[in-house]
Amino acid sequence: MSAPAELRRGWCPSLLRPMPSGDGLLARIAIPGGIVSAELLRGVASGARRFGNGFVDLTQRGNLQIRGVSEATLPALIDALAGLGLTDPAGETGASRDILASPLAGIDPSAVCDIRPIVAALRERLACDEALRALPAKFCLTVDDGGRLGLDDVRADIRFTALRGSVGPAFAVTLGGAAHDAVACGVCAAADLAEVAAALAHAFLGLRQESEVLPGRMRDLVRRPDAAALLRATLAPIPGTAGVPPALETADLACASERKGDRDGRGPSASIGFHRLDAATGYLGIGATFGRLTADQLDVVAEGVEEVGAEIRLTPWRALLIAGIDAGTATWLRARFARHGLITTARDPRLAVAACPGRPACARSTVATREDALVLAPLARQLACAGIGLHLSGCLKGCARGEATRVILVGREGRYDLVLDGRAGDAPSRAGLSLEAAKAALAQLVSAEAAQAATRPHGRMG
Ligand code: SF4
User: Fold this and answer.
1) Which of 48, 156, 213, 429 would staple 295 via disulfide (CB 3.0–4.6 Å)?
2) Which domain range does residue 368 map to?
3) Least confident of 170-184, 226-240, 242-256, 412-426
4) What is the pLDDT of residue 264?
5) How far is the CA of 359 from the centre of ligand 1 (A)?
6) 325 lies in some domain
7) Is 253 helix (H, G, I), strand (E, B) or coil?
8) What CATH number is given to the structural domain containing 230?
9) Do residues 243 and 332 share a domain?
10) CB 408 less than 6 A from any atom of ligand 1
């Protein structure tokens, strides 16, 4: 069951409006605030096993997605999840806004403030505004508490980042992108954040209607100087807001933030493993191969968390954080989770490779990207000490990763084309490689880079 590409584009699957894919329907479960209980995790595992194909994805919006559901099993899945209090905020229309909050909200001593009540107020404000149902399905907002796990690398339509103001916390408002390229809009007080978000969302819809070419997202609109000025003017009537201070003119919140350099907002590797939050406790970040968990793995996590009485947080880097535990407990959980195939260390080779679902999940792929990625992962880790060194893409679209990567293998007619330092759609330097030939090419590259690094004083790869 595979939806045509034009149908899938812009489709945000939800529980009542699941999206067809190569292995059945994808039913996304929105997790408000990204905080999950062990009981809820068990319920999702049971739902995936009984009504799906037993696999659950961690999404880049900090939600869970049950795979392999069918038209016949969907009603029973909806009932089972409703019994756990999990309903679909999107309803039949699929109109629901993703609001991503800092994963350590409320428990991070380095944060500017506890954003949980602010995020709850924002969620409520947007949910009760009927007109905002017209926003594009992928429209997304972030609220960053300015603490340890920043959302700098998460792309959003409207971004709020906490700053220490002279009279208490304030939020920098930026639009259409990640921290480094979003356009500065102004500064608002915490109490006004929900109103500011609603006003900007309405302004986006108004400007969108007037545009000759319908902009899909805020980033398409805000780079037009006239639209940016109108969006900034939206804030003026709201008390407690201000225009763009010079520090924000650079549109780089990583620069504007007084915490630049301390933040770990660098994707999954930075959140995996044990990290202290204070002298006594911290959090353990765990991941799954390509962000996909089995129902059994979810049960293992739920059991472990129940035993130690911790809390589970979801992240936009497709990791789970077990929060509020000490180092000894983390070591015990880590060993237990690793035995069940979960990723518990940032050095795990699986974190060095990005791969789209490929064959058979996606009809556009002629290669089994994820299977092949596991074969190549150790070489990918040698190419990049941290972060991602290899990207396998089933086709030129490059769904798994938009950023440039050291090596990209792009599937074509059952073989791979190899691109260096680019993206999936770039011109390849070699074409038609079998998996074995691709492996040999990677090994050659690793050796060449190692030899080069050895000639540099204190040189290292990655
Ligand atoms: S990149 Fe992968 S998942 Fe995306 S369309 Fe191509 S084959 Fe499918």
Assistant:
1) 48
2) 350-455
3) 242-256
4) 43
5) 9
6) yes
7) helix
8) 3.30.413.10
9) no
10) no
